[in-house]
Write a structure and sequence with these properties.
heterodimer, A: 153 residues, alpha+beta, five-stranded mixed beta sheet, 37% strand, elongated, B: 88 residues, mainly alpha, 67% helix, 0% strand
Chain lengths: 153, 88
Amino acid sequence: MGHAMHEWIYVGVVIALLCYVGADAWNIEKKLDISSVPANAQTIKVTGQQWFWTFEHENGTKEVGQLHLVKGQPYKFEITSRDVIHSFNMPDFAMMTDAVPGRVNSFWMIPDQSGQYLIQCREYCGMFHYNMRAKLFVEEPSATNSTTTAAAS
Amino acid sequence: MGLSSNLLVIGLIAVAAISFVNQSFAQSTSTPTYARVEIWALFYRLMVIAFVVGALVLGVIGYIVWRFRESHPKNRVPTREPLEGGHH
């Protein structure tokens, strides 16, 4: 086996690994693309403005500065802005999308862990950008049902 | 077809096969897709590959430096005549 053989094996291994990186990332991107949103997903309209977040559920319920979701339920987020460019970020769920005035950006996700999490703006949007935060509450389905029942009665 | 082309084709086929198997598994299971899990799993896989490629490159550089150093026993005998100032 000459020198060239070693070199070609080395080049082949590195190229194969890099191709795998590309293919793998492509697969995941396709899997999480907005076109693969589950049929039973609920739409949440998210509006960013200096310097707070507003959320509107499918049933018309609006929330400001906090968002209540149900664990295991798929959600589609439609994100826009009223003034400048913001960025809607839920770091614990590895989700971030820009909120751009006059444009609706979307992503979908299924919260798989209950608890209280942070929502924050990740695009510098003015003086109080640092404080443009909201709370995300992911509740167990049973807890949500009992809360709804209690509220109804 | 040269050796390089063969290796390249083998590599590409391997990549395609792995991707296909991954996708088939993803479609056959009925478990929901959690973006958080998928993204972190992808991140860790790519980190492993990045470190493997890094180790390969570093290893090759190390080998070249070690093998072709002036004091290596195999480099005692010059491979060609000195260009100038040498004694015949």
